Amino acid sequence: MKNFKRVYFFSLLLCFILAVGFTLAQAQDVPDVGPHPPTPRPKMESHIGNITGHSDTPQAHSDYRRYCAGCHGDLGDGNGENAVWLDPKPRNFTLATFKCRSTPTGTLPTDEDLFNTVARGLTNSNMPIWNTFTKQQRADLVAYIKTFSPRWGKEKPGDPIKIPAEPPVTMESISHGKALFTKLECWKCHGPQGKGDGPSAATLTDSQDQPIRPYNFAAGKDDSRFKCGSTNQDIYKIFMTGVDGTPMPSFADTISQSDAWDLVHFLRTLQVNRHSRENDVLKAAGGTIPPYVEKPSAAPASPSGNGAAGGGN
Fold first, then answer.
1. Concatenated DSSP letters of 68-82
2. Which is the most buried residue in 67, 114, 128, 212, by most CB within 10 A?
3. What CATH number is associated with residue 124?
C-alpha cells in the first residue's frame, strides 16, 4: 500500500512538472502581438571643420526621407523602393562598410570622408552629386547616416593615411608601374589594356554577393572620375586603403609608397583619351613603354683596413 501511494505521489508530481513546462513552452512560443512603438534612433553628431552636424534635427530627417530613402531605405538597409531597379545596389548603411575612405581598410571612414562623398557623388553608379545642399545640411545627413549602424557607437574612425608628395612623372616610373600592374595581377580584373575585361571580371561580386564590374580605365576622358575622386592623390588613396565591400584590396602592406605612385603614373597611361602629364611623357618617348629593368642593389662596403678575402694583417 505504501509503495502504491509513493508511486501515485510521484506520478502526480511528474504530471504537474510536465504541465507547467508545457504551459511555459506555449507562453514562449506566443508572440507579443499588436503594434510596437518604434525603437528610438540614437542621437549622433558629425564634425567637419568648424561645422557640427546633428542627426535629430527635423531638417536631417526630412532631407533623408526626401533625397535618400528612395534608394537607401527608411531603415538605411539599401532596400528603398527604387533599389530593385538599380545596379550597383545602394549602400547598406547598417553595415557601415564604405568604399571611399581616407582610413585603413576595415575601419570606419571619417565624417569628412562621408561629407565629401555626399557632395561628390559616386561615378558609375546612381549616386548623384548633391552639391545643392548647404554644408550644414550635408553635415546633418552624415550624422543621420551614422544612426543606422551600431558600429558608430562602438568604434572610432581610423586614422587617415598620410599621402606623400607625388614624385615627378618619368618613363622609369611608368615602366615600373607597368611591371607592378603585371606582378600584382591587376590585369586579371581590369584587363591587359585596362578596359575592365580581365579573365576574372565576369566572376566578381561585392560583399553582399552582388555582381560588380572592375573600373574601365580606357574609357576615361578629360572629365572622367574614379569612384572616389579624380586626382592622382585619389588614386593613390585607393591603392592604400582599398575599396571596402568590393574585391579591390588595400595594398598598404604589399607595396611601398613609391611603388604606389609608379602604379598611379602607369594607370594614367591606360586612359588613352585623356590629356595628362603621364601621356605627354609617354608620347615624348615614342608611345611605347620599355621593359622595366630592376636596379641592382648596392653591394655592401668592405670593411676598411682588411686585405684580400681570407687574408689578414
1. IHHHH-TTSSS--TT
2. 114
3. 1.10.760
